[in-house]
TrEMBL record:
Protein's UniProt keywords contain Disulfide bond: no
The UniProt record lists the keyword Membrane: yes
Name recorded for this polypeptide: Acyltransferase family protein
TM stretches of this protein: 20-35, 47-73, 94-118, 171-187, 193-214, 263-286, 298-316, 322-344
Listed InterPro entries: Acyl_transf_3_dom (IPR002656), Acyltransferase_3 (IPR050879)
Keyword field: Acyltransferase, Membrane, Transferase, Transmembrane, Transmembrane helix
Length: 361
């Protein structure tokens, strides 16, 4: 890796590795759920076992996702602080891929894993599940559990347990738009002030935003991403911050071993993961031979498809361990993610960009 660039120059270029970071994070979530859903020895995956009870690899990967989301969503607002255009771009990124995923996986689950089979497609329940899920359950705070499953399908289990973070993501987009629309300072300075204020409020005054946005861990990581974006022209994330984070984690472990009989803390593990993600993302790690991967983001589809695929595999496979479950899931999910990006997500984004550009012109 070359000497670190500023975060702003890394993000602005087409020569960074943030899509690689997202891809690795999505695969780590699949690994975590393969540990939970394998039918031989359900339990923590090997990486999570090293961090328990303070963290697991799934939560750590989601934390990295939300930090990067705060970074790039704030960049989107700063580039074009218009409520309507911001909303259209965010809908185009989340909804088309999610709608196709829900329609496809729900149809297969209904036809193959319910008593009614294909006749169940005539019922309103699966269509209500698809529409409400694709619309992020209309961004309400409390989603009734009955909306997350379809009676009789896969034993009444939640059909896509990963989507709770997508719903939180959507609510955070709303908050970015509201914060930006309320600006009473120059925009970059305003976003900096608000991200700091809300991060402090998240821990000191838990009632703040409790009725809508409250998910302290993810909200705090998202706000840290917002703050980093406002400082991006000065921030350089290279090997040094990552090494310092590792040293801090090691020093911190001595106290926690004495007090809690465990070496790790949530803050320390997250600090190491975040500095590593920003270091790798800011680098030119992929090089020119793999530059096409920088333009394609398969992580979202991997994330939203893997849970229902895993549930269906559990229903049809004999008892399998974590690595067989992981391999079988990825064998199906990786082609689906390529299809989703190239045939659904990227075309939807390109179409919206063309429409917005023509309207602005």
């Amino acid at each position: 890796m070359q000497a670190p660039r500023t975060l702003a120059s890394a993000i602005a270029s087409n020569d960074n590795s943030f899509n690689l970071v997202r891809l690795v994070a999505a695969l780590l979530v699949v690994l975590f759920h393969a540990g939970e859903h394998n039918t031989v020895a359900p339990g923590p995956d090997p990486l999570s076992a090293l961090m328990l009870p303070v963290a697991d690899i799934g939560a750590l990967a989601v934390d990295v996702f939300f930090l990067l989301s705060g970074l790039f969503i704030t960049q989107s607002w700063l580039r074009d602080p218009d409520l309507l255009r911001f909303a259209v771009r965010r809908v185009a990124r989340l909804v088309p891929g999610l709608l196709v995923c829900l329609a496809l996986t729900t149809s297969v689950a209904l036809i193959c894993f319910s008593p009614r089979g294909i006749a169940g497609l005539a019922d309103p329940a699966p269509w209500r599940y698809i529409v409400n899920g694709a619309m992020l359950h209309w961004l309400v705070y409390i989603i009734p559990p009955s909306e997350l499953a379809i009676p009789g399908v896969l034993g009444g289990a939640a059909l896509n347990g990963s989507l709770w973070t997508v719903y939180w993501e959507g609510r955070m987009y709303v908050m970015v738009a509201l914060i930006g629309a309320a600006a009473i300072l120059p925009m970059r300075r305003w976003m900096m002030v608000m991200s700091l204020l809300l991060t402090l409020a998240a821990f000191q005054f838990p009632a703040v935003l409790a009725g809508y946005i409250w998910e302290a861990r993810l909200w705090s990581l998202f706000l840290c991403g917002m703050l980093l974006q406002t400082l991006a022209e000065q921030v350089r994330i290279g090997a040094r911050p990552f090494i310092v984070a590792c040293v801090l984690l090691a020093l911190n472990s001595t106290r926690w071993l004495d007090l809690e009989h465990q070496a790790l803390t949530v803050f320390g593990v997250n600090l190491v993961a975040v500095t590593l993600a920003l270091w790798v993302g800011s680098s030119r790690l992929l090089g020119s031979r793999w530059r096409h991967l920088q333009r394609h983001d398969y992580s979202y589809a991997i994330y939203i498809y893997h849970w229902p695929v895993m549930l269906m595999l559990k229903a049809v496979l004999p008892p399998v361990g974590i690595w067989t479950m992981l391999a079988a899931t990825l064998a199906i999910v990786l082609p689906l993610s390529v299809f989703s990006w190239h045939c659904v997500e990227a075309p939807a984004l390109a179409y919206v960009r063309r429409v917005l550009a023509s309207r602005r012109a």
